[in-house]
Design a protein that fits this description.
The complex is a heterodimer.
Chain A lengths: L8 H24 L4 H25 L3 E3 L4 E3 L1 H27 L4 H20 L3 H19 L6 H32 L4 H10 L4 H18 L8 H8 L2 H26 L4 H24 L4 H22 L5 H33 L10 H4 L1 H15 L6 H13 L4 H30 L14 H19 L2 H4 L10
Antiparallel strand pairs in A: 1-2
Chain B lengths: L1 H24 L5 H25 L16 E4 L4 E3 L7 H19 L9 H20 L3 H10 L1 H11 L4 H29 L6 H7 L6 H18 L8 H8 L2 H26 L1 H27 L4 H21 L3 H32 L10 H4 L1 H14 L6 H12 L9 H29 L18 H19 L2 H14 L1 H4 L1
Antiparallel strand pairs in B: 1-2
Helix pairs in contact in B: 1-2, 1-4, 2-3, 2-4, 3-4, 3-11, 3-14, 3-19, 4-5, 4-6, 4-11, 5-7, 6-7, 7-9, 7-10, 8-11, 9-11, 9-12, 10-11, 10-13, 11-12, 11-13, 11-14, 12-13, 12-18, 13-14, 13-17, 13-18, 14-16, 14-17, 14-19, 14-20, 16-18, 17-18, 17-19
The chains are: A mainly alpha, B mainly alpha.
């Protein structure tokens, strides 16, 4: 006999609002056609802010809510990440407005797909079950494949989309296979049950190990960890810049969310399998990302490799997290994700503002930016040095919390990874600074010193990110609040 | 006025920031406004410094002007607090930082290097002052770290935008070297936190940290801190960024770099590394002393090989900081008193030398000593001041430089109990030889720049002697060099009680 499952509509409110806006967007686009083109971005932006309201009320309410036998959970962890996805999405809408509007792209569909991806991400934050994780992943990935190829007459755009799609689907396949193995030996798809089942120790070790390995590799694609990063630079370069920013921040964060829930809930007892794996992933991801970034002449590609390296920093806490230090590891990763979102979106937004004039993302076109657009040049430097981790800009705190986790109860593994991270931040500085050098210390390449007009939406996105970057750097306590996530109701 | 004592240090640190923010919103074209705001800000800051000095209790050994008994949480989740306070070690350096910044602003009045832009230039100087003052008052490791790093960006841009021919190379080299050190330093700080009692508070760590951890861990942590501070000092063999940075930086940048930024490193040793980990420092001391004397000799030989006046002064910094580090390595109150005096004296004297080098460059458009000569004939005042500073720098008794160098050498005769006397006496002899070299290269520089007759290319050229910004910027420094030279007690009285407290743990 079928029992109707309990549905907590308050807990679902963010997703319901988003879905409603999605439908509305489609209808507006369908009914009003060209007359309402400008309305779509406004509608999408308001919709994202609207979805933020129930997130806030849920946070204010403070109860952990669990549905469908533990498959869908709304706790502080989920709420912080939902808020992150919605705000990052809002900033993406802000930076998209003029870019998409002026580019004669399909606006209604664009925002529809963008919001679908964000919907998938908000679901991901709550998913505590293999199936809902998979559905969330596909909901956020498939629109992203399409968005990556939005400039459809551009060869690079096609390459971006196809590469992203093929590798993404491949990764999904690998991951799904791993999930099926884990389901096979544990007999459950709910993460908590998997944990209990694995803890009993009666399961076949090799199969579980392979299952864990495959699942982690699947998400390693998503977070562009080396050696599964090869799609990232090409996709980032070919995709419309707002989508690149979105992918490098929100999509990556979604991958980390899934990794955290899977690793720290289900595979908690099997740290012998995943700790060494993450150590290697983290170390080579940050090193390879940084070293290749050194050689880039295109700013977008440089930021792409930089985001690979940043993923390496975020992977580090996994490598040493034990059951006891799990809360600190989650805090550190979430803090990093939040700060990284502000810095990286800001950097992309400034690059977009400059590219409005130069029509290029080559590093050399940024020469002498300080002479004709001092404000943008300073903001560019702010975001770049924040990414490099120079106080008093936000990034230093993100790095500090990561290193702090690595050195808590220091082991050889933790200390060595901390040293690798330290050396990598120095390497990273070199290319971030070389970009700043271009803007401040090199002459204007074509002697064209006309000032840059920054549209209001793009400008407000930059201002929001800059505000966040400074605020976090000077008063880190504002993100440190997220520290008490009491994750997963454990 | 009880309230003032609580707020004094916060004011001292953040007044320049207020000035910088105001300048940020004023358009670039209003240059006089920017100069005015920078001047008012730095003067206001110095006034606060003066009041702090007046209210400072000389015989008090603990921290003063600490903001209340219970510092405010800054980042509660990692237990970092906004904890500030000064003692006799920090106060002279804090005042030095305030004075030098003010004088640099005054000197800048009509000496803005290309590409001009007084707004950005003065703004960076003010931000630098925030970082420098903050480092000297911070009593929390994370706070210290943040201020320590705040100076990097302004100095990077100052060298990279307003510097000489090789400015981009020099700027990034400076940045990378220092950041490498700080990366290891922050690892050390975090290790101190976890191993030393879950606190970043410097006074707490001084009292508790070392007894809470095994000696080999303390040695490793000291190694991390050593790298961070030694690169900043800079000690041989980490000094290679310094000649490039100094040579390429604009005059004002060189002055601030020499007078204050280098002191952040030595200050870190005296404030953090040695008091918190005295036993580890004891084990490391022979190595530090060794590198210090190598630096003295190496710096001196480096000077003799230079043809560029500014580069010569830069190498002389390596040698002088060697004396400071030798004083520190003895781990005796006598040696560290000498070191702190040496920091202040070097700040005043080398700052002056860089000012003069800048003015010479303004007039002759070169610092190549082969093309210079006869400064005494063409600009006698400037020539004599150069002579005076060279004398001060080589440690002539009666001028400030002497009291930094001579006691440091003397201290090596009797290093702290347990340190090898023969070794340190060898260091002493080598360091003494270094003073002879110092006389050699400084007099050689003086001879080539100031004596003789002007070279052919300058014959008949009119060379301006000092302008008014030079008078107002230089005379206070010259007066301080003489005053501290004649009355070294002015400074020693301030530093001595604090240093005895800082080294108290060593006796245990």
């Amino acid at each position: 006999m079928f029992h109707q499952p309990y549905v907590d509509y308050h807990a679902f409110a963010p997703e319901i609002v988003l879905t409603g806006v999605l439908v509305l967007l489609l209808l507006v686009d369908l009914v009003f056609e060209d007359r309402a083109r400008y309305a779509t971005s406004t509608l999408a932006g308001l919709g994202l802010l609207g979805a933020l309201i129930p997130v806030l009320t849920l946070a204010w309410n403070g109860h952990d809510r669990s549905m469908f036998g533990g498959a869908y959970v709304v706790d502080n962890f989920a709420l912080v990440l939902k808020a992150l996805f919605l705000v990052a999405g809002y900033i993406t809408v802000l930076i998209s407005t003029d870019y998409i509007g002026e580019g004669d792209y399909y606006e209604g569909e664009y925002y529809f797909l963008l919001l679908s991806a964000i919907l998938g991400m908000t679901v991901m934050a709550s998913a505590r079950d293999l199936i809902s994780i998979f559905i969330a992943l596909e909901t956020l990935s498939i629109p992203a494949y399409l968005l990556a190829g939005w400039r459809k007459r551009d060869v690079k755009g096609n390459e971006a989309s196809l590469k992203y799609y093929l590798l993404g689907v491949f990764a999904s396949g690998v991951m799904l296979y791993g999930m099926s193995l884990i389901f096979g030996v544990t007999g459950s798809t709910v993460l908590v049950h998997i944990h209990d089942s694995l803890a009993k120790g009666s399961t076949s070790v090799p199969i579980v190990s392979i299952g864990i390995l495959f699942v982690i590799i699947g998400f390693a694609f998503k977070v562009s960890a080396v050696p599964f990063h090869t799609w990232a630079p090409d996709t980032y370069e070919g995709a419309p810049t707002p989508i690149t920013a979105f992918l490098s921040v929100a999509s990556k964060a979604a991958g980390f969310v899934a990794l955290m829930t899977l690793v720290f809930i289900s595979f908690d007892g099997r740290s012998d399998v995943w700790q060494p794996l993450f150590w290697v992933l983290s170390a080579i991801t940050m090193t390879v990302g940084n070293v290749i970034a050194l050689r880039q002449t295109n700013v977008i590609r440089m930021l792409a490799y930089s985001s690979v390296a940043q993923a390496g920093y975020m992977l580090a806490p996994f490598a040493i997290a034990t059951h006891a230090s799990r809360p600190q590891a989650i805090e550190a990763i979430v803090t990093y994700l939040v700060i990284y979102a502000a810095m990286n979106l800001g950097a992309f937004a400034v690059v977009m503002a400059v590219a409005r004039k130069t029509r290029s993302a080559e590093k050399s076109t940024f020469g002498g930016l300080f002479e004709y657009a001092p404000g943008l040049a300073v903001l560019l430097a702010v975001f770049l040095f924040a990414l490099a981790g120079i106080p008093p800009l936000g990034g230093w705190y993100a790095k500090l919390v990561i290193i702090r986790v690595l050195l808590d109860h220091p082991t050889g593994w933790g200390v060595s990874l901390a040293v690798v991270l330290g050396v990598n931040s120095v390497v990273g500085l070199f290319y971030y600074a070389s970009m700043a050098r271009e803007a401040f210390m090199r002459p204007v390449p074509d002697e064209d010193r006309a000032p840059i007009r920054v549209p209001a939406t793009l400008g407000s996105a930059i201002a929001l990110c800059a505000l966040g970057t400074f605020a976090v750097g000077i008063v880190p306590q504002i993100v440190a609040r997220f520290a008490h996530l009491a994750p997963f109701g454990t | 006025m009880h309230g003032f004592n609580d707020w004094a240090l916060t004011l001292a640190v953040f007044i320049p920031l207020v000035g910088a923010v105001v300048m940020l919103v004023i358009p670039r074209a209003l240059e006089d406004w920017h100069k005015g705001i920078a001047l008012v800000t730095t003067v206001a800051d110095l006034v606060v410094g003066g009041v702090i000095l007046a209210r400072f209790k000389l015989h008090h050994t603990g921290l003063q002007f600490a903001a209340g008994a219970h510092p405010k949480d800054w980042i509660a989740v990692i237990h970092a607090r906004y904890e500030v306070g000064i003692d006799g070690i920090s106060l002279p350096l804090l005042l030095l930082s305030m004075v030098i910044t003010l004088l640099v602003v005054l000197y800048s009045w009509n000496h803005f290097p290309e590409p001009h832009n007084p707004k950005a230039f003065l703004l960076l100087i003010l931000v630098l002052e925030v970082g420098m003052n903050g480092t000297f008052v911070a009593q929390d490791l994370i706070l210290f770290f943040v201020f320590f790093e705040v100076v990097l960006l302004p100095m990077y841009f100052m060298i990279g935008v307003w510097g000489g021919e090789q400015r981009q190379y020099a700027a990034i080299k400076f940045f990378l070297f220092t950041l490498f050190g700080s990366a290891l330093m922050i690892l050390g700080f975090l290790a101190l936190y976890f191993k030393g009692g879950q606190s970043f508070s410097i006074p707490y760590l001084i009292a508790h940290a070392e007894s809470a951890m095994p000696h080999n861990v303390a040695l490793l942590i000291f190694g991390g801190l050593f790298m961070g501070f030694a690169i900043k000092v800079p000690m041989f063999p980490f000094h290679t960024w310094l000649p490039d940075a100094h040579t390429q930086a604009p005059t004002q940048g060189s002055v601030i770099l020499a007078a204050i930024l280098l002191k952040l490193g030595t200050y870190g040793f005296v404030r953090i590394a040695i008091p918190i980990l005295p036993r580890a420092a004891h084990t490391w001391a022979p190595w530090i002393g060794g590198l210090a004397v190598v630096g003295i000799i190496y710096g001196a030989l480096g000077c003799l090989a230079q043809t560029d006046m500014k580069r010569l002064i830069a190498f002389s910094s390596v040698a002088h900081m060697g004396f400071v580090m030798l004083g520190i390595a003895t781990l005796t109150p006598f040696g560290i008193n000498a070191a702190v005096f040496g920091m202040v004296a070097h700040g005043l004297i080398t700052g002056m030398l860089f000012f003069i080098a800048g003015s010479v460059k303004d007039r002759f458009h070169t610092l190549d000593m082969k093309r210079l000569g006869g400064l005494l004939l063409q600009a006698p005042r400037m020539g004599w001041i150069l002579g005076f500073c060279a004398m001060a720098s080589l440690g002539l008794p009666g001028l400030a430089g002497f009291w930094g160098e001579f006691p440091a050498i003397l201290a090596a005769y009797h290093p702290a109990a347990g340190l090898s006397e023969p070794l340190f006496r060898t260091y002493m002899v080598i360091a003494s030889v270094g003073t002879v070299f110092a006389a050699g290269y400084l007099l050689w520089m003086l001879q080539r720049v100031a004596f003789g007759t002007p070279k052919e290319e300058w014959e008949g050229h009119h060379i301006d002697d000092m302008h008014w910004p030079e008078y107002v910027a230089w005379y206070p420094l010259l007066a301080a060099i003489v005053a501290l030279g004649i009355l070294p007690g002015l400074l020693f009285r301030m530093t001595d009680p604090a240093i005895h407290t800082a080294l108290a743990a060593l006796g245990k």
